[in-house]
């Protein structure tokens, strides 16, 4: 009798253990590149990533960022909030980028905090926020909440000669490729972390590479790749924008020959840096497979903002509201995601945080402005997002050393030909409205002219013709009102506004 009872207890215990293993929450990996575009074929040099993530899962063709600049966009990814709520307006401390104010408020509510509090082992390696590690905000000793294993880059994207904060301690790197190339360092640290994970505890990894951000330093073995390539001569390449806002009107058309040569060089080098990211994706996927976790892991691949190279004669950068700067890659694979599938519905960077928590079976906090797209991943009924919001605050400096004629005119970051990348009046709010029938963009600038740009993206995907003066008053009123509503939304009110329907004919 005792033997039978003992055997029964063993069977019950075994079933409990097996059940616990079966319901283990999924692991989640977020790979974030820097300045990787869609419009200029930024995903082309990554065949391994396409095969291992896109072909094995879902590709989103309409993924947009909340702001076309690194720190505001990354802050939105982490908090699930729009710029007007997390209040990170640019890449500086004064713009709240990794500031003490950020640390005391928004940083305490980022989605890794919730994952860690609910049993996830968390890992970060690479670029965090542009001003991370600055002495004014705690230096390398400051480890953001939510991370068990922290390897944060001090400052902005570089490939050599940098410092990492490793668990709050400075780790210095030089210019030796084998030891210091940052993308490969992130790769190695990720693999080492995966070697340490437990089969009983879920994990979250965020791998934030410097590629393909300036200074576009590729690994030595890739220096000769793409030598016959040049930047795409898109329909809006090297033309002067018609009826565009003030900063675009200040460009030089046609662009000088040395500018075009520089653009082509940037294009090739950007692609070259992505080859090491492609290697990293392959290494991480292979390691997940080797440790038996691949089939229980969601892998997200995306970027913080897009990029332009000569579009509307803007030489190089981001910061604009045109699709080349706000549209980014998004590929997701994981349990329940249909292989080799495509989603054309609009999603945003603010949606990543609630989606990741939802996949972890955790309720997204009410302060999140974004909405989960887990139902899309699993092919389930869901609310259609009709409208996305993009916000940007232009920057200025008083003195332009290489262009003294622009001193005191509110410009910033001007090249050798005095074509500037930013200005005080490059401040705007935009919505992009998308349904199966209609696709419009409405952008209102905060300048002395209250300038507005409106595009019918179905008829004019390259945003060549500003219809602000010719569109129907009803259309303009509806788009303007939706922009005003979204620009003031918070939490669940953003969900209602972003999924609104206009019934536009």
From TrEMBL:
UniProt-listed InterPro entries: Alkaline_phosphatase_core_sf, GlcNAc_6-SO4ase, Sulfatase_CS, Sulfatase_N
Signal peptide boundaries: 1-22
Species annotation: Biomphalaria glabrata (Bloodfluke planorb)
All residue ranges annotated as the Sulfatase N-terminal domain in the record: 26-361
Family: Belongs to the sulfatase family.
PTM annotation, UniProt: The conversion to 3-oxoalanine (also known as C-formylglycine, FGly), of a serine or cysteine residue in prokaryotes and of a cysteine residue in eukaryotes, is critical for catalytic activity.
GO MF terms held by the record: glycosaminoglycan binding; N-acetylglucosamine-6-sulfatase activity
GO terms for biological process, alphabetical: glycosaminoglycan metabolic process
Named cofactor requirement(s): Ca(2+)
Descriptive protein name: N-acetylglucosamine-6-sulfatase-like isoform X2
Alphabetical list of SUPFAM superfamilies matching this protein: Alkaline phosphatase-like (SSF53649)
